[in-house]
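Meet today's protein:

…
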Amino acid sequence: MYIGNTDDGSGLHRMLFEVVDNAINEALAGHCNRVDVTLNADGSATVRDNGRGIPTDLHPREGVSAAELIMTYVPEGNAFPQDTRRLPDAFRGVGLAVVNALSEVLDLYVWRNGKEQFMRCRMGKPDAPIAVVGTAGQPDGNRRRGTEITFRPSGKIFAKTEFDFTTIEHRLRGLAYLNVGATVALGDRRGFESKEVIFDL
């Protein structure tokens, strides 16, 4: 994946859009109707969807979860090993692994099959395998589902690590127009007063 310039902000925003695009893919497939993007006070960004959740089953050959492969595996060239092609269709290229590798910290939460699972990575390397940390129940009795990724870009790689609200708003507005029926929300928690824009078509 080409990440773009690490000095002018284009690569920084490409990272965020890669995570957003994975969530939008769930909407395109009919599995998701809401994507939330939040710019956090600590310089990180969070993307959350209510789709199926990144697969977390153990990969029989690699001996790690599908989620860990998705978040850490960057193959040489364009071809994946034959066995990883059998992963569920949430495995969409190497974009998430690249985002992970360029992030000081990346937190992954997955709500799937009634479980809440979590994995933290630093510069692309997991602190520990993904683990169940709770249930996916909600007060209304329904099961929560989906994926949440929070990442903080590395200041050692990017000269500029501050996300631009206007740039992101423009991109999300376009995505919302192209995905009628999916709600896309952008929140900014970095200022004295929080702000939120919701694109609901």
